[in-house]
Amino acid sequence: MHQENFNDLSAFVIVATERSFTKAAARLGVSQSALSQTIRNLEERLGLRLLTRTTRSVSPTEAGERLLLTVKPRFEEIESELVALTEQREKPVGTIRITASEHSATSILAPALAKLLPNYPYINVEVNVDHGLTDIVAERFDAGVRLGERVAKDMIAVRISPDLRWLVVGAPSYFARHAQPLMPQELTAHNCINIRFPTHGSLFAWDFEKDGHELKVRVEGQLTFNSLALRLDAALSGLGLAYLPEDIVAPHIAEGRLVTVLEEWCPYSPGYHLYYPNRRYASLAFSLVVEALRYPVQGAARPC
């Protein structure tokens, strides 16, 4: 149906409801003659008279009454939905869908949302844990969380964490049986705890860098997980070396349950960023979630 058909139907509903061309024309901001011509065009298209006109009144014909009963509720539903959508922009209400890695979900999203959501009971947040690079537009997510260097250039990116680094760790019981590696390449001789990306099936290569020299080491071992918690537990049990976020292993290192190796090869990298397409008319709910997650850039980039 052409756009003008909707305009004609909308004009008819207003005239039939007001029972007056004068009042209807005032509501629509058009002249009475233009409105009368609009109704005549609609009647000609349908081949039916919809309104009975006299010098003092306007009333629907039988066909007009039937059309009014059918069309008016639809327009009211549309108007109601448009009002509801406007309220989403003006009131904190709605569901925000975010895709994130396990580490960012547990260390960044969960604490921030725990502070935000109790104050806004009509905001719902759905977090989907995914280690791959999800196409948030195709998968209908509102935003994604990834490390800074992995965010596509055509996305808006908001920093939500300080700079981060991953450390190679093992339990004292593991190093009681194996010598500590002094170079990243030596990891190939160790029993390493791998992570597999579920989205494309490949094993994660461990990244290293020192004095501008970058290395990617593909390690092997008896265990492969797609869970950070399981990799940590395996490392604590002395089952192999693991490559894990510093904030996760730091307490265990401090208490002697884990030992870090190759630390000089583990530099900091850009932290997590929330990324999303241009949202010129973002809802208030989405804006509140973004602000709750935003990292204060003016502060120290690296954790103390």
What can you see in these coordinates?
The chain is of the alpha/beta class. It has three domains: 88 residues, Arc Repressor Mutant, subunit A (Orthogonal Bundle); 94 residues, D-Maltodextrin-Binding Protein, domain 2 (3-Layer(aba) Sandwich), CATH 3.40.190.10; 100 residues, D-Maltodextrin-Binding Protein, domain 2. It is 38% helix and 20% strand. The chain contains nine helices and 14 strands. It has a five-stranded mixed beta sheet, covered by helices on one side. A hairpin with a 4-residue loop joins strand 1 and strand 2. Helix 1 crosses helix 2, helix 1 packs across helix 4 and helix 5 packs across helix 9. The longest helix is centred in the N-terminal third of the chain and has 29 residues. The protein is rod-shaped, with a radius of gyration of 31 Å. The relative contact order is 0.14.
Reconstruct the topology from this structure.
Layout lengths: L2 H16 L2 H8 L3 H15 L4 E3 L4 E3 L1 H29 L3 E7 L1 H15 L6 E7 L13 E5 L8 E4 L6 E5 L1 H4 L18 E2 L10 E5 L2 E5 L6 E2 L2 H9 L5 E4 H9 L4 E3 L10 E5 L7 H10 L11
Parallel strand pairs: 3-4, 3-5, 8-11
Antiparallel strand pairs: 1-2, 5-14, 6-14, 7-12, 7-13, 9-10
Helix pairs in contact: 1-2, 1-3, 1-4, 5-9
Strand content: 15-25%
Give the mean pLDDT.
87
CATH architecture of the largest domain: 3-Layer(aba) Sandwich
* Biggest sheet, spatial arrangement of strands: 4-3-5-14-6
* Morphology: rod-shaped
Sequence of secondary-structure elements = HHHEEHEHEEEEHEEEEHEHEEH
Family: Belongs to the LysR transcriptional regulatory family.
GO molecular function: DNA-binding transcription factor activity; sequence-specific DNA binding
Domain HTH lysR-type: 4-61
Protein name: Transcriptional regulator, LysR family
